[in-house]
Design brief:
With 346 residues, the protein is of the alpha/beta class.
Amino acid sequence: MNQPTVGIRADASPAIGVGHAVRCLALAEELLDRGCAVTLLGEVSVDWLRAAVDVMGLRVVPAPVAADDVVSLCRDLGLDALVVDGYELDPDLGAAARRAGLVVLALHDGEFGAAQEADVHLDQNLGAAPHPSGGAGHVALAGVEYALFRRGVLDLASAPRPDDGGTRVLAVFGGTDPRGAATVVAPLVLGTGVDLELTCIVARPEVGEVVAALPTTGGQSVRVLPPTPDVMALAAASTVTVSAAGSSVWELLLLGVPTGVVAVADNQLASYEDISGRGVVAPVGSLDDLVSSPRARKAATAELTRLLTDAAHRERLGAEARRLVDGQGRRRVADVLLGRLRGPAG
């Protein structure tokens, strides 16, 4: 066939975060490298991510809400395939797109987003089960071997880890931290009493003000930064990262950064349990428990203290993480999607 044309239906905003869009942009990079034309259908209202989209040269087209209207837009754009990623999208979108002759790739996280009908289903989480739907030619990709990584993160993964004797901690809770997790977790990091430099990524000024005003010991410092496309470079230069259990955690595992993980939303609980059980992260707890339970905060502080003070523990976590994630997921997913485009309709 001629140059394949692929649409990506995903959004990024302060309200919903950036995880869906970021992983889709990683796939978009791979498709562009293979000569595909890619259009992003949706809203990108997070400044740093929109800048990254512009650098890629991706066309961005606002998307309607109703499935049939999205499909009409796909027809107008001459698309061959549609990538669908978002829990709040019309659940009939995948089926409507397939009826119109498009090849559909739908991303989901366990049951979240799994209602879409698709030719190819993708759940990139550790321990994910293949999507149960059937149908002629249906493909179910499941597991962290299909995790989608941006080129910049892949480049960082090949660089050596810093070791200058300082203790640098990066705290980042998604691209927008809509629940203000930084105000809950940063005090626990400082509460370890360990001498450290804490950098917190915060999207809202009121959250930054709270974090910047936290009490510190004489050997501690706190720096507040807005969301940045260079966040993984900051992570790669850190001794320890404390992160939400969303899609960015796979990037941290690829980098081999010793990471403490917090489940900040219900859709992250399964991933949190899986990666904690595999011994590749330090389990800090769920945000709801950390807010409501003194016992959970005490256990989290103990877990963070070990992570910050036990170099052998950090080395084990980093080594296990690197063994688990190989960074080839975008290639595997693109192979399957483009294979469907070149093969018989399913």
